[in-house]
Amino acid sequence: xxxxxxxxxxxxxxxxxxxxxxxxxxxxxxxxxxxxxxxxxxxxxxxxxxxxxxxxxxxxxxxxxxxxxxxxxxxxxxxxxxxxxxxxxxxxxxxxxxxxxxxxxxxxxxxxxxxxxxxxxxxxxxxxxxxxxxxxxxxxxxxxxxxxxxxxxxxxxxxxxxxxxx
Length: 166
Fold this sequence. Notes:
166 residues, alpha+beta, 6 strands, 19% strand
């Protein structure tokens, strides 16, 4: 199953890491998912029920909730799909769109309240409600902010680590 962005915008926004309306579970890669037999043991083991099998491949649906990185999916997997050590973050982080209520002068801090790593903070703004600021280094990509956002203004994008220019 190839992961290909169908537009330039999708590619530039990191949508190449998306898998048919979802993301791979933590630590699962395009290469490792080829070992998946589609047994769905990871889906059954997920206590937050965010792992779903789509076309015989495990994906994570953040609209259902968050990943707690408990490692139960990895423990139950009979193949070598997951890394030997449980992952503690995804290869992506949250992005807050311009449709965010707080950015449009409506008081909302639901994402901050849901974030287990306090990666989303709110800073004061003159003449309006506080605005969200995302610390991408603190964001684990768990998706806790996605399911609570009333305007679905939070998505994920691939982590990029650019080196310093000489």
